[in-house]
Amino acid sequence: MSPALLTLGLGLGLIAFAVSGPWLLRHAAPALMRVPRLAITVISGGLVVWLGTLLSIGPVLAWFGSGPALLPERAAAVCQRCLAAANPFDVGEVETAIPAILLLAIPTLLILALLVGVTAQLMRRARRARNAARLVLRDAHRRQLHGFAVSVVDARETFALTFPHRHGGIIVSTGALDALDHHELLAVLAHEYAHLRQRHHLISAIIASLAAFLRWVPVVRAAADALPHYLEIAADNEARRHAGTPALVSALIKLGERAAPAVAEHACAQALHAAGPERIRQLVRPTGGLAGAAPTVMITAYLVVLGVASAAVHLPYASAALTGC
Question: What is the dihedral sign for C-alpha 84, 88, 94, 96?
Fold first, then answer.
């Protein structure tokens, strides 16, 4: 394969997955709901693979493009030596209008800008979560319930939610404690603890922060919208193992669709909630058979091909850099 064919393949693969990704995710849902933790990995890893593939096009073009030199003569010679060391293809250079250094610098600057933006988004989300937790926990007291450390809030509303450990962890209202029986409360606490143990807050924050800059890409927007549903299903599965499906379904009905305290309903967007009549159908009548299997296989194959192609670009550059060209 020549650099030109590799570039064409990467470009077509990026466009095809960006456009068809939402359709594939939607039709793969019946299969992905049966393995939500795998779905979370596929969605999160898929965005990383897509972004890595996008950033590999410039370095591929740099292998066979020969544009005007922008660097001093000695620096340009070093750059050409590094490009030659990283280039796995034995092809001649093609005269282009774009300097090779720009083809390498632009992806580097883009990833640095994205890292800065995502970091700023993460810090902003952490600050909002901290402020929301302080608001909810003003009059809370700590208790041990069914072996879980819980902050109990004196409120008539029935709610249960979870902030990251450092911001308060599991929070339950006295209204929820009064409404839920022993098994229902165990299901809710197991659900909330699963969010903490499986790092759902971190996963959600990273993907949401990344999507804040890339929602114009259809597959990124679809993945960011689908991820919270799989996080909840993964936590539901943990709750079912602890307390059984009937107890979890009954608890979700009692908690209602929204499980955020009214005092901080807007701020609690940073928390994960144990709520959801919209999830009850999946719990009571889960999909079976091979529904969604074909789109799931297609998504996996897409990502494997893009990942291998992207690695074939990035790894030679990394190897050349580590060995000093």
Answer: negative
Q: Tens of pLDDT along 153-172?
A: 998 888 888 998 888 899 99
The CA–CA distances, whole Å, from 139 to 135, 153, 203 equal 9, 6, 29
Mean pLDDT of 1-6: 69
* H or E element in which residue 143 lies: strand 141-145
| CA–CA separation, 179 and 173 (whole Å) | 10
Backbone angles phi, psi at 289, to 5 degrees: 70, -150
Q: What are phi and psi of 56, to 5 degrees?
A: -90, -15
pTM, two decimals, is: 0.83
Coil vs helix vs strand at 215: coil
The answer to whether 159 and 175 have CB atoms below 8 angstroms apart is yes
Q: Give the separation between CA 313 and CA 87, rounded to whole angstroms.
A: 9
- Amino acid, single-letter form, for residue 7: T
Of 97, 100, 59, 95, the closest CA to residue 77 belongs to 100
Residue 324 C-alpha from the chain's centroid: 34
For the chain, what percentages of helix, strand and coil (3-state, to nearest 5) are there? Answer: 70, 5, 20
Q: How far apart are CA 192 and CA 145, in angstroms?
A: 12
* Strand stretches in 154-274, DSSP E: 160-162, 170-173, 272-273
Is 249 in contact with 211 (CB distance < 8 Å)?
Answer: no
- Please state, in angstroms and rounded to a whole number, the distance separating the CA atoms of residues 291 and 288: 7
